[in-house]
Amino acid sequence: MRILFVNFILLSSLAYADFYYISYKYVVKDFQLYNEQILVSRAMQSCAGTISQSIVFEKKNNDTFENFIKYKQDKMIDFFDKLGLHVKSYDSFNTTNSHTNTTITFFTQCFKVDFNDNFVKISALK
After folding, report:
1. Is the predicted pLDDT of residue 79 greater than 70, yes or no?
2. How many angstroms from the chain centroid is the CA of residue 6?
3. What is the pTM of this model?
4. Which of 8, 72, 73, 83 is deepest in the core (most CB within 10 A)?
């Protein structure tokens, strides 16, 4: 009985993954970067869904997932682009001035994250 319990714990720890809510926002006003941020929050409970796409990163240092995601921000933005970004743009022109406001948003979505010693696998859920 004890061997079965130990095997169950080992197997469940191998299959264990955390769930995070991740969003991204990029704002440009009058052709200058105004704000850019990736927001990461650990989910309080498991998210339902099937894996649609994944990305894997090699991990070199002992860091939290929130800090790791900021180091890999450029590659994460490319991943968000594959999943679908929302672009909103406003322009106004008059005789003396022109103003633009562009916002690129990746709406909050739940991701399954396997954060191990050697790699990080981030999977989007449908």
Report:
1. yes
2. 33
3. 0.75
4. 72
